[in-house]
Amino acid sequence: MYSVGDSYEIEFCFNQEQVNDFCKISGDFNPLHWDEEFAAQTVFKKPIIHGALIASVFSRVMGMEFPGQGSVYLSQLSEFKRPLYVDLVYQAKFTVISIDPIKHTAEIQTQVFDKERGKLMVDGVAKAMNADKF
Fold it and tell me: Which GO terms describe its molecular function (predicted)?
């Protein structure tokens, strides 16, 4: 059983091929995500990773690692504070901030940090249900 304050961390990195694959899967072909010439003309200066692709890391962890298999990912609120770029290493951190033992749910802080600089890139809160762990 998990308690308030329990946490979990993973590192991840996406390459441009994975971002291009996500364009195909999602149908989001915004050139900001794949076209270097287009992105160079924007405030970002180079292609950025889709926010939904970053959020997929949260889904993977919630369903497979923390709290893990058997979990139902009920909601996610995310604030994308800075752009994320391909081929950089990021650290995702998950911290249990509240538990409702009657409903077997927990609120989990979901954050992404730039591993090299330690800057907070994404900040959010998810809600998950797992009868065996909350």
Answer: (3R)-hydroxyacyl-[acyl-carrier-protein] dehydratase activity
d(CA 22, CA 56): 11
The residue whose two tokens read 């961390």 is 9
Global pTM value: 0.93
CATH class of the region 7-12+53-129: alpha beta
Tokens linked to 84: 């994320």
User: What is the spatial distance between Cα 8 and Cα 109, in angstroms, rounded to a whole number?
Assistant: 10
* Residue extents of the structural domains in the chain: 7-12+53-129
Q: CB-side exposure of 69: number of CA atoms within 13 Å?
A: 0
Type of residue found at 113? F
Q: Find out whether 123 and 81 touch, Cβ atoms under 8 Å.
A: yes
* Closest by CA position to 88, among listed 117, 111, 59: 117
User: Tens-of-pLDDT digits for all 134 residues of the chain?
Assistant: 999 999 999 999 999 999 999 999 999 999 999 999 999 999 999 999 999 999 999 999 999 999 999 999 999 999 999 999 999 999 999 999 999 999 999 999 999 999 999 999 999 999 999 989 99
